[in-house]
Amino acid sequence: MNQISSFNQLPTELLHILFQYLRTEEILHSFSNLNNRIDSILNFHSAYRVNLQSIGKSHFHLICESIRPEQIISLRLSDDIDTPNQSILFLSYFPIDKFTNLRSISLIRIEFKSLHEIFSKLHNLTRLRSLSFNYPNATAEKLNQFRSTLRHFYTRILPQLEDLSTNCIDCVELIPCSNLRRLDFNGNSCENIKSIVQHAPQLQSITFHGNDFGVFRHIQPCYSLRRLSLTVGFSLLFIDKIEQTLRNFPNLTHFDIKSTHGMNDASMINGHWWQTITQSLTSFNFLFSMIGGITEKILDSFRTPFWLKEKCWLVVGFGNYLCTLTGSAFNLSYFEINHESPIYSTIPNNEIVQEYQFANLPRLISIKTLRLSWKKSLQSLSTIVDLKQIECLIISPSSFHILRDVQRLLPRLHTLELECDDSSSYWFYLFDQIQSIQIKQIRTLRFDFSPYSQEEIYNLSKLSYSFPCVEHIYSWPITSTTDMVDNLNQFKQVSMYTIVQHNSDLLIAQENRRQDMQIENKTPWNDIAMAEDQQKEDILGRSIERHSPQLNASKSAHIVVRF
């Protein structure tokens, strides 16, 4: 009672600050119905950031039934595989023009119908400054129809935007972008970047993901740009092309470039070449992969006074990768560590870092996804990687022992992928490591098992004790609907269940035919007769009901079958 009383005395301003660090569903679930004062604060809180991507149905309805649209300043909608048709349901709660205080909106794989509805009214939201969306997957005819809508939409919305992230910039010619400061776009071509640069006098940052950035070499000089980030796909890179690109941005201070497909000219990993074109930069980050791997000798050209003293740009090589460690760390989101591969660096007096000897390496502080084949302790990695930032962990059998330390050392971890090998002792080793422990923070489990034996299916079902809070399961092998129902009943919190089935006798339904079941086939849907699909749906539904009468009453899981 004293603790509740003390909490109730906290200033309202402090509670609003606290809410900034919590997801909307966490705020509502944790603070609702404590007392009248807290309920009033929640009711008048006007800075909710609502992220509906991969959200469970109960949390979705909690948000929609607890807050008003004018209380939301940031919104993320998703019609992705784990939340199909979410946008239609959401718009049935709130017309988009009611979000009068919305500053930012992200639309992920949104269906055309919802996109048309949203785009037709989005310009009425006068406070909107940030927009993120991509083309949905569709036929060429539908895409052409959408482009017509998009052109009209851009004309009305672009003048007020400060931040745009999209793969749809082929309709922006001659449209004023007077307030645009940040542009993030992806695709195989960037032809329209010329027009955008000419009509965006305040443009400060460009991020490009694609195969061909050659058009950057032919645009008019852009004096406003300060930051340029290029992630290049399957395109052979040469240092002279990069130099021509940078000349068109004379006031550039920050440059990032990533090319991880291995198709890079030798000049791209030559520190002397880079020194000649990066003199004026404040920060420079790169990540390259090279076929044949990285050797210690490659780093010699990055050990000059320019790199080590003037700029303090450190370089590290591991496996096939070479990257900078500017300042505290290069902004890598993915990192792969193998106990058999040495790590090289340009740190003075530490020319080669053999396995496990990482004491002098700068820490990688921004890694979100970590792939491990590691025989030592998880604690030993903390000198090179900030383990507290890891959200997704991919581990081979040689790393199963670290699972015992996950809760203590990886507080943000929510996704775990278990890789497989051909060892007959695989399952014995896994269960020996997780015996009697529960890793409650894991929300997503992914598996990499092929082929699938009955023993594997049986052992997988035993994982429910160690991972009791899992909501999403991917690539789970089954041989029958009995396996599917049994596994669903084992994992009480599952809302998304992706099954791998190689037996064509399994009867499945057509995608989105049932309200709470989604089925996905690797073959086109038009190759399957509609009547046959309806029969499959009916039989699968009856099979689930027959095997587990309580399942439909207690769960509303999306089920995806791949085979």
From TrEMBL:
Superkingdom of this entry's organism?
A: Eukaryota
Where does the record place the F-box domain? 4-51
Cross-referenced InterPro entries: F-box_dom, LRR_dom_sf
Q: Which Gene3D superfamilies match?
A: Ribonuclease Inhibitor
Question: Secretion signal: which residues?
Answer: none
Write down what this protein is called.
F-box domain-containing protein
Q: Which organism is it from?
A: Adineta ricciae
